[in-house]
Amino acid sequence: MADLRINLAGIKSPNPFWLASAPPTNSGYQVQRAFEAGWGGAVWKTLGDPILNVSSRFAAVSFNGQRVAGFNNIELITDRPLEVNLKEIYETKKKFPDHAIIASLMVEPKQEKWHEIVKRVEDVGVDGLELNFGCPHGMAERGMGAASGQVPDLVEKQTYWAKEVAKTPVIVKLTPNITDITVTAEAAVRGGADAVSMINTINSLAGVDINSWNTIPHVAGKGAHGGYCGPAVKPIALNMVAECARSPHINVPISGMGGVSNWQEAVEFMLMGATGVQVCTAAMHHGFRIVEDMLDGLNNYLDERGIAKVSDLVGKAVPKYSDWGNLDLNYKVVARIDPNTCINCNKCHISCEDTSHQCIDMLKDSSGKPYLQVREEDCVGCNLCSIVCPVDGAISMVEVASEQPPMTWNERQAALAMTSAQKLDV
Ligand SMILES: Cc1cc2nc3c(=O)[nH]c(=O)nc-3n(C[C@H](O)[C@H](O)[C@H](O)COP(=O)(O)O)c2cc1C
């Protein structure tokens, strides 16, 4: 069995699966049950000045029969008194000394407020702190959460204030509601962050009821933007993790989250630079026991590949992620249709004909039976036909030899610049 332990900036955990700061980590009762189920760590539901919540606060987007393809909420931070949370954190840590308990914190952007809360939570034995600069609603309107997290100076300053007194590692949780997450990640690093985590939720409105014209969800007929998470946000989160992982200025560990629902997605995040993952929506949808499959799947994956430690996965795919200008312009794939598997539904023909490069012909064989064939010389390898094809294996994208040597856009531009410089010399 592979070694699943991780060490994220000094925070040790028996495995890379943590529950994210959210409803699943709202109380000692829940976190203890989660640890019993197999979760390696938990980021406690954000502590701060307890707030009032509204009733009716979640909504989900179901897509083509998949329930909770995306999840939207207008919930705020903890609504339980700090003393109660601290007592339960203390008790939980006592019972589970080897599991990671991280306190998520959000206070007003004032030095004394950060000093006070950091000292109070560290007194009860947390393994680390996560500064919540990400919640997009409610708290942001009071200058906290994403409102702080969108201003690099405030991220840096508040991280610095927390670090002034913190004895445990400080993770800074970033908001995705920003153009370039590396800017705020760098600010966190400048402030002394020991790690960064991402993503918090994305500004969203789940829907509008077309009969009542109310927003979904609504509170007595009024709505407000919420935060989006769950499977739909995974590609956005994965890119943000990867962008931070490949930045030479963000040389701290990353705790990745956003749409992680199974072990395969956890592996993707780790390959793209996350030391471990956090999960919220999938646990809310399916319960704590999903971690059993995650642990089994990850163990098998590592064993099958002879990888001794899960930490050996971290960042392995990062060198493969680059700028568009470094992609080989002469690399070519084309679509090939397997006539024995194809059911002649024509979906590929229609999408290619209407919206791509018109290179799938509808032909008939000698007996008059219809079949579809790609004119490879006209195929640009966009993948659309294989994406819309409903039958696995009916269309494959195959690599074809290029007549040209590899050449990236950047190399091409450099070569052109060199040629014009030479012409000028002459
Ligand atoms: C109902 C709900 C409440 C949340 N509350 C918090 C919170 O208090 N603090 C925080 O940092 N993130 C909070 N989050 C965000 C999650 O921790 C996580 O960043 C986000 O949901 C992405 O992960 P997921 O796609 O696995 O859900 C909340 C998310 C949900 C759905």
Automatic annotation (TrEMBL):
GO CC entries: cytoplasm
Domain of life: Bacteria
Ranges where the 4Fe-4S ferredoxin-type domain occurs: 333-365, 370-400
Cofactor(s) in the UniProt record: FMN
GO molecular function annotation: dihydroorotate dehydrogenase (fumarate) activity; dihydropyrimidine dehydrogenase (NAD+) activity; iron-sulfur cluster binding; metal ion binding
EC number: 1.3.1.1, 1.3.98.1
Assigned keywords, A-Z: Flavoprotein, FMN, Iron, Iron-sulfur, Metal-binding, Oxidoreductase
Enzymatic reactions: 5,6-dihydrouracil + NAD(+) = uracil + NADH + H(+); (S)-dihydroorotate + fumarate = orotate + succinate; 5,6-dihydrothymine + NAD(+) = thymine + NADH + H(+)
Pfam families in alphabetical order: DHO_dh, Fer4_21
Functional pathway: Pyrimidine metabolism; UMP biosynthesis via de novo pathway
NCBIfam families: PRK08318.1 (NF006183)
Stated family: Belongs to the dihydroorotate dehydrogenase family. Type 1 subfamily.
Function: Involved in pyrimidine base degradation. Catalyzes physiologically the reduction of uracil to 5,6-dihydrouracil (DHU) by using NADH as a specific cosubstrate. It also catalyzes the reverse reaction and the reduction of thymine to 5,6-dihydrothymine (DHT).
Assembly information from the UniProt record: Homodimer. Heterotetramer of 2 PreA and 2 PreT subunits.
UniProt-recorded name of the protein: Dihydrothymine dehydrogenase
Organism, as annotated: Priestia veravalensis
